[in-house]
Amino acid sequence: REIDVLWTLKPGAPAEGSAAQPLVCSKFVIAVGHNAAAFLSSFILDSVCWEVVGVVKLWNEWCRTSNTTNVLPTDSFCLFYRLISDPTVLLCQCSCYVAEDQQFQWLEKVFGCMQKEGLQVTILSTCPVADYKTQESTLTLPSPFLKALKTKEFKEHICCPLLEQPNIVRDLPAAVLSYCQVWQIPAVLYQCYTDVIKLDTVTIEAFKPLLSCKILKSLVKDVSESTKILKKLLTTSETHNSIYI
Q1: What pLDDT digit, counting tens, does each position of 59-69 carry?
Q2: Domains in the chain: how many in total?
Q3: Could you tell me the CA-to-CA distances from 106 to 15, 17, 164, 202 in Å, in that order?
Q4: How far apart are CA 232 and CA 230, in angstroms?
Q5: CA angle 162, 163, 168 (to 5 degrees)
Q6: Does residue 199 lie within any of the structural domains?
Q7: Domain assignment present for 236
Q8: How far apart, in whole angstroms, are the C-alpha atoms of residue 65 and residue 89?
Q9: pLDDT tens digits for 79-126?
Q10: In b/e form, how buried is each residue of 195-218, taking b as 16+ CB within 10 angstroms?
């Protein structure tokens, strides 16, 4: 159950494990789950402005990834992108499940390649609205909705209300936020609570308020193109999820 991080930052064959020199990274945006990854694909990522610089290979009881970069919305994958005009900006789309016993490896092998000084991390993820703890009925909540958690060092404006106690976050988003807290890295987690588990337009667009955040504002592409890409992603997903008898 080893995790391999393959970087392609230099010409030639991919370098397995960590890069020879720590990556200078000012912004690192991590989208965990299919809907969060689709949000980045629709509103941020552009093949002209971004290049794939790394992949994660892993397998567990829920998924198996490969080192391919030609992925479908329904695939399990973990890809890293770098902004061509500013190589210090990195994005990660992680639609695969990272098991509990693999999360420490993921953190060590990904963040171990980065220079932590001057780094700021933003995490996007989704969670079932049934997991949200509140005194009122979840049936009356305007799902989907965003909540945020941040590290002590994160001082910038937050684009949605903070997550109230006794709610908790789990899995890879929680592991990344905890890692950043320990290493004193400014980080914020935006979690979307939704009642839809598959790729869904409403859930994806629930992340749109984040486009006004300082860390994402400068990365937003043409909104009209974003709508077309979003429709294409959902159409592709529906095609590959169809069952024929």
Answers
A1: 998 888 877 77
A2: 1
A3: 16, 11, 28, 30
A4: 5
A5: 150
A6: yes
A7: no
A8: 24
A9: 999 999 999 999 999 999 999 999 999 999 999 989 999 999 999 999
A10: ebeebbbebbbbbbebbebebbee
